[in-house]
């Protein structure tokens, strides 16, 4: 009885979680402007209308620039932090790593408002660069979590053997360590890219007059005639996110398999 009740709960939870995602493509390919049942017919015109909106194109370009830059910067910072936390001992290590990981548990609106107050107080104009700063702040803890697992699964004897053969610490890191953790780095880049591309709150506060894709989507919901186009755009974003997360999970598992570590769970 308990098992059947748990299965029923899991089934209802999955429906509650994924029903909105299933409804997105249904209304995106629906011919009607009104988002309601019954569906009137199949059409691709909402996808075609996206090609005629220059503001949408600008928002996409801005979001891609922010996401790529944030992913690269946060992954670089994550490599340094993960390497230091898994390889070395230093004073206040736990406290420092705790502060770095703090954005994982802080509400994003608190982070966004705090950054806004600090940046305006310093006289920094709001732009895409300030959004990148905020996204690096929230993406770095995720990269550290991914890369720490990759660095912890490394066999330290490989590094010691490289030193015995005359390699320097820099060449050992470049020739031995970096290739072994490369799947984790790729996974970190993809996860950071996805988080930055979908992030709304920090972009809303820090973008200034330059639109990003989530902010553009939010603004368009004021116009009922634009909602089907947003549904079509949302369908593309959901598919893109699923593909990126699947690739990231593949590289994460590949990295664990190459290093001989144990898989303790993942994104999918």
Automatic annotation (TrEMBL):
<dbReference type="Pfam" id="PF00528">
    <property type="entry name" value="BPD_transp_1"/>
</dbReference>
<protein>
    <submittedName>
        <fullName>ABC transporter permease</fullName>
    </submittedName>
</protein>
<dbReference type="GO" id="GO:0005886">
    <property type="term" value="C:plasma membrane"/>
</dbReference>
<feature type="domain" description="ABC transmembrane type-1">
    <location>
        <begin position="60"/>
        <end position="248"/>
    </location>
</feature>
<keyword id="KW-0812">Transmembrane</keyword>
<keyword id="KW-0472">Membrane</keyword>
<keyword id="KW-1133">Transmembrane helix</keyword>
<comment type="similarity">
    <text>Belongs to the binding-protein-dependent transport system permease family. CysTW subfamily.</text>
</comment>
<feature type="transmembrane region" description="Helical">
    <location>
        <begin position="64"/>
        <end position="82"/>
    </location>
</feature>
<feature type="transmembrane region" description="Helical">
    <location>
        <begin position="226"/>
        <end position="248"/>
    </location>
</feature>
<dbReference type="GO" id="GO:0055085">
    <property type="term" value="P:transmembrane transport"/>
</dbReference>
<feature type="transmembrane region" description="Helical">
    <location>
        <begin position="132"/>
        <end position="154"/>
    </location>
</feature>
<keyword id="KW-0813">Transport</keyword>
<dbReference type="InterPro" id="IPR051789">
    <property type="entry name" value="Bact_Polyamine_Transport"/>
</dbReference>
<keyword id="KW-1003">Cell membrane</keyword>
<dbReference type="InterPro" id="IPR000515">
    <property type="entry name" value="MetI-like"/>
</dbReference>
<feature type="transmembrane region" description="Helical">
    <location>
        <begin position="94"/>
        <end position="120"/>
    </location>
</feature>
<feature type="transmembrane region" description="Helical">
    <location>
        <begin position="175"/>
        <end position="206"/>
    </location>
</feature>
<feature type="transmembrane region" description="Helical">
    <location>
        <begin position="7"/>
        <end position="29"/>
    </location>
</feature>
<dbReference type="InterPro" id="IPR035906">
    <property type="entry name" value="MetI-like_sf"/>
</dbReference>
């Amino acid at each position: 009885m308990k098992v059947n009740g748990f299965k029923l709960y899991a089934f209802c939870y999955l429906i509650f979680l994924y029903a909105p995602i299933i409804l997105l493509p249904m209304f995106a390919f629906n011919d009607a402007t009104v988002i309601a049942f019954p569906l009137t017919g199949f059409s691709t015109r909402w996808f075609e209308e996206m090609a005629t909106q220059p503001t949408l194109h600008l928002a996409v370009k801005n979001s891609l620039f922010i996401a790529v830059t944030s992913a690269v910067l946060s992954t670089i910072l994550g490599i340094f932090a993960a390497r230091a936390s898994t390889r070395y001992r230093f004073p206040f290590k736990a406290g420092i790593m705790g502060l770095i990981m703090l954005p994982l548990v802080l509400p994003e609106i608190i982070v966004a408002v705090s950054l806004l107050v600090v940046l305006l107080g310093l006289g920094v104009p709001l732009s895409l660069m300030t959004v990148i700063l905020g996204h690096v702040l929230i993406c770095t803890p995720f990269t550290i979590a991914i890369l720490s697992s990759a660095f912890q699964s490394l066999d330290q004897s490989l590094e010691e053997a490289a030193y015995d053969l005359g390699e320097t610490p820099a060449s050992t890191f470049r020739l031995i360590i970096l290739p072994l953790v490369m799947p984790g780095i790729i996974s970190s880049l993809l996860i950071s890219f996805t988080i930055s591309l979908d992030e709304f709150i920090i972009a809303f506060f820090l973008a200034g007059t330059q639109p990003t894709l989530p902010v553009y989507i939010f603004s368009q919901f004021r116009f009922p005639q634009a909602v089907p186009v947003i549904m079509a755009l949302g369908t593309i974003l959901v598919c893109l996110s699923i593909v990126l997360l699947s690739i990231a999970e593949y590289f994460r598992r590949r990295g664990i398999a190459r290093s001989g570590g144990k898989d303790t769970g993942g994104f999918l």
